[in-house]
Amino acid sequence: MNIQLPLKLNLESHSRLDDYVGEAAGRLQKLDQLTIVFGEKGSGKSHLLQGLCRQTIESGGYAFFVPLSVSLKSEILKNLEEAELVCLDDIDEILDVPEWQLALFHFINSCRDQGVRLVMSSTRILGGLAIELLDLMSRLKGAYMVRTDPLSDEDKLAIIRVKAHRRGFKMDKDVCTFILSRSRRDMHHLSYLVDQLDEATLRQQKKVTIPFVKRALGL
Fold it and tell me: What percentage of the chain has pLDDT greater than the value 70?
């Protein structure tokens, strides 16, 4: 397989489907058709898409995770359909751009014709997107929709403890509760804080306590 990409697309080491709390991961694994994952920012959309890619790669397949933004040119999609799975994160970031609308329409068709599984994510529902290309809107409306699961504070506590464990350090529940009470509560930010603590523990070789967290994260 000869795939040339204009930038390096890496998966976060901790994004695995078995770390996801809720039913969306199970639903995604049962689908093989065009799929759009909806949910608020920080609700786990990127985690799910990266987890799908990791699962495919670990099974010996080819997969690409592409976080979209208005700074990217639509040429990023070129040759991606040579993989078995393509995950496009945050399509709502680029769908206000006519060039991107046309490129995505053709890419969806190409993936369908070549039997490539395509999974996309969006914070905004389709009705909230300024899509002028009616053929593209028709394709998107025909996709299977999966919503991320709402997380309780207890769910978030459990998730960040698991993330810490996977990185090789332990966080007691009182430490996790302290972090949750002093920071933004979306999972993207909480995962970032766990990454920061991971780096701090490697440098200082100390147990993760509330005083340590205060110093390391400035909380």
Answer: 94
